[in-house]
Amino acid sequence: MPRPFLTARWTNLFLANYPVPPELLKPRLPPGLELDTLDGRCFVSLVAFQFLDTRVLGIAWPGHRHFAELNLRFYVRHQGHRGVVFVREFVPQRLTAWAARTLYNEPYQSAPLTGTIREDAATISAEYTLDWQGRRHSLAVTGEQPAVLPAESSTEHFFKEHAWGFGVTKRGQTLRYEVSHPVWQVYPVRDYRIDLEWAGVYGSEWAVLQKATPFSTVFAVGSAVSVYRGQPLL
Q1: Best label site of 81, 93, 209, 231, fewest CB within 10 Å?
Q2: Which whole-number Å values give the CA distances from 130 to 70, 95, 215, 220, in the listed order?
Q3: Using CB atoms within 10 A of its CB, is residue 224 exposed (0-12), middle (13-18) or buried (19+)?
Q4: Higher-confidence residue: 133 or 62?
């Protein structure tokens, strides 16, 4: 295997999954890809998690090792391979967001973003807060311990397990990068809360989700992750 471009631990991942019309996603679909579906429906996932022990080419940059991320993503296929495409990704550091936008054309934005974890013998809770456009947005989830491993045929597996990420270069060429990690266990979700102004955070077209209830939620334990440098599709 080549040396990973980035290594980290992604932990306490909260995914809220919403069915959406294909017309909402097709303009954002990179060339050569098709939308992935579950039971004939397209989905987006609102994903909040902790990014820990981050290293780029083996180097840990002070102030950029531990942080929270919030992203909105949808699901795609390329020649049988399942992957994700990001609509927008929030991190708290300006430098991280700038580098991702400038060097890799990834849709990153910087904003105050925090993650808080509370845990006892029976439960674990995560709360993520984003300050954006003059408003505080938040996602919170409580799961039951111990964590369990869902079946490969489960909806949890569909949303949390992807080996590929896709983007578009500044020249309009589709880029594919590999994300490697063991299969994640999940905490059974006891309850959750989402307070987010969709149009304010992602654009007016996303207002259709303002009063929507997630089709499903997933609270994944996470693990160590290796991300390998992207390659243009031939």
Answers
A1: 231
A2: 8, 18, 23, 20
A3: middle
A4: 133
Helix (H, G, I), strand (E, B) or coil at 25: helix
pTM, two decimal places: 0.95
Q: What is the pLDDT of residues 172-222, one digit of tens each?
A: 999 999 999 999 999 999 999 999 999 999 999 999 999 999 999 999 999
What's the fold here for domain 6-232? Acetoacetate decarboxylase-like (2.40.400)
- pLDDT of 128 reads 98
The helix (run of H) or strand (run of E) holding residue 195 is strand 189-195
* Cβ count near 234 (within 10 Å): 6
Tell me, what's the pLDDT at 210? 97
* pLDDT (tens digit per residue) in 120-130: 999 999 999 99
Task: Give phi and psi for 223, each to the nearest 5.
Answer: -175, -175
Beta carbons within 10 angstroms of residue 27's beta carbon: 7
Residue 200: both structure tokens together: 């304010």
Q: Which of 84, 99, 143 is nearest to 117 (CA)?
A: 143
Delimit the domains of the chain by residue range: 6-232
Mapped onto helix, strand or coil, the DSSP state of residue 197 is coil
Per DSSP, helices labelled H in 29-135 are 94-104
Of 167, 189, 188, 187, the C-alpha closest to 177 is: 167
Please tell me the distance from the alpha carbon of residue 163 to that of residue 22, in angstroms, as a whole number.
22
